[in-house]
Amino acid sequence: KSIKLNFQNQTNPHYQITQIVAASGSYLNWKILWRLTVKLHLANFGDTNMFTAHGADHVMVNRVRYDHTIVVSAQEVREDWIVADFDALAEGHFAYFLPFQPEIILIGTGARQRFAHPRLYRALFELGIGVEFMDTSAACRTYNILAAEDRKVIAAIML
Known about the structure:
The protein is of the alpha+beta class. It has helices at 91-95, 122-126, 136-148, and strands spanning 2-8, 15-22, 31-38, 51-54, 59-61, 64-66, 70-72, 77-78, 104-108, 130-134, 153-157. The longest helix is centred in the last third of the chain and has 13 residues, at 136-148. The termini are far apart.
């Protein structure tokens, strides 16, 4: 047996708390379980570039498909970061990001997470620019979160 009671939050009507009182056979064993319901709304990020899909061989930025290496910032998608593959990364590839002056650079390394040697991105580190290596799916998701917070983030995606 259970009793369900609904409470609407007066300060924010988008939150609803459901109190479920459940009995397990005797009056002494009543339990109170809480469930929070949150309504989600689609956010409009204006002209900010966001990843709208990603797969093993592609990513999509604002519904435009890319099947090669790209660099994404809030304002632009660049295709001029030429990296043959992860093993070909050199210091010059990281110097490419200096004119952007980002807070953080997310390097999407493909299907699995890989790490470059720190000497390759030492110049960025010395300027206080964070460099994070993650698989491409994680880089896309993380970029979207940081870009939505108006952070100066760049995602460099290798496919």
